[in-house]
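Quick entry, no commentary yet.
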Amino acid sequence: MMQTRTLGRTGPAVSTLGLGAMGMSGAYGATDRTEAIATVHAALDAGVTLIDTADFYGMGHNELLLGEALRGRDRDSYQLSVKFGMQRGPGASFGGQDSRPEAVRNFLAYTLTRLGVDHIDIYRPARLDPAVPIEDTVGAIKEMIDAGYVRHLGLSEVGAETIRRAQAVHPVADLQIEYSLLSRAVEAEVLPTLRELGIGLTAYGVLGRGLISGHWSAGPPRPGDSRGFSPRFAGGNVEHNLALVEALRRIAGAKGCTVAQLAIAWVAAQGPDIVPLVGARTRERLAEALPAAELTLTADDLAEIEQAVPAGAARGDRYPAAFMASLGVGN
């Protein structure tokens, strides 16, 4: 079975790799519901215990999907990490973050119902709400922890100052933030702050939304695929970024692994306090990703990877400009 890592000083023990479920609800185009549920089952059977979702993935579709997939499973055999508060509109538009205390309680009630569970293991605002002090949001989550509806407090995509303010109200289990060979802004200030305070990190986007999976090729994404709006997938940028992948492919070949496995293992190798989330939406991609949990990278391997893809090597922002403005750290 898969090894575990503990999220910070106060968080739960979770599998070395977690499963990110966003792609199962249309973020990257059409998906197969039966295959998605089978992928969740395969992950659980392989020892993955941490499953990440959000109430706005597919406007509730993802939570309903997971509720179906998890039905009948021992509730103590897995942990649910849930983000809340990102406002959506018809046509999949976005309208900012709502982290008011009354909204926290409302979002949580809907999430518990859709997932069909009596508690959430880690509950976190998806983004910082500029209109609501983080202390108020954390205070509301603390009330839900005290009431037994939530086990741990998490944060997402916030900077060091916000982390410190939240921690002063209630212990933070982990910060969820994008972290990969292409996105390393967290290393400058946020990661040292997390380690100083004893807070874990769950890393999403470890394959750059598929860009460094070893399976992406130049050309526009399919209709309905949100990567069509990503600067890193845009013409002129994607070709540069795929050249970095080819450099990784040579290293992976010598190591006897795939590019995806190498990229995931690199994130895991940055510290035992980091848990990579694998965004697999099919059993095939999951099966490729799982061996990364057992892949050991030597100091020489890490140096070679660093030379091939140094910090800042990616071309293009990780989100469109309107979304970049809501992040606590940059690329």
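second:
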Amino acid sequence: MDPDFKALSKAQREHALQGLYYLSNQAGSENRPSGRTQIELIHAIGSCLLGVKPESISLNSEFSIQALGSQFLDEPAAIKHRLLQLFLLAELVLDPLPEAVASAVEQIAESLAIQDEFLSVGRDMSRGAYSIVASDLHRKGYLGDPKNLEKGGKMMRVHKHLLDCFEGDEEDLELLTQWLNLEQCAAGTLGRTIWEYYQGRGFVFTGQEGSVNPSIAQHDWLHVLADYATTIEGELEVFTFIGSAIPDPSGFAFIVAIVSLFETGRLDQWGGGVLNADKGHLDLPGMPIRLADAIIRGRKCNRDVMYEIDYFSMKDLPLGQVKELLGIPPKSPEAIQAGSVGFMAPQGITSYQREHGNHNYQPPLE
């Protein structure tokens, strides 16, 4: 179960799941492909995050938004905020997104007495205002906070004042040298592992021309530490983990962006142009369970794994020790059974990466 919801009663958790199914009814989800994906995601949220068996909830039961709010009247705002984001996630996977669903989520937020900056994102998506959504994701909350950019720059060892979350840094010899020196770390350490990860995939170290921006480079440490593949499905998992791990609810921006990129395609590109839209990956068998597990792992970690950790300072520690220090739990058996593979699994690398990387540092072929 998601640690945020462990203190809730079974009745409260059942009521929350009932509300999610109410949302699917509002969308007519059974009659549309994205709606069926939404229902599978709600099943996963119920069983994995809320600890409620989906079959115990009737899709056609009476539901009152006002009654939902009264169920959580005395709960901490932080818990209600995380609960609201489950509704936002279920909303955002719909394509197209009906305005009636966006309105229902706004009413649910009002009943919970919670304001979330991403409510407007759902409303704009329902109206087809995707350019506004892209702008909002870039400048709102976590990604647009100058304080986050400042501390992130320090943690990433960038030697310039970042003005944008996806600003490049292609002329930083000192930064590049730090990445290149990871080759000297002992086998099995975080530093050596990330160096081999870059070699095997043909990735260009940041700090030089042709590299990804420092923020995207920062997320590569999480591919290694949380053991997620570098396929599109692995990107869905790792950014969901990152967005869930960040204690500030504004970290949800990462989940909104990655779902909009790799499920609905409402974002053409993200990450400074590094990641490009490729629709329908949450529709794949097992992906809702894998996404739910990434949320739980992130919430158990409960720290800003993007901009508050200096990974270079831990480069000489064994990989397992760093996972323990950061409180990164293993994947659940259900997620593994659903198809979640690690970055060194045979399926954990794309054919393009295998072709362009150093074969000596790649996952073994089957």
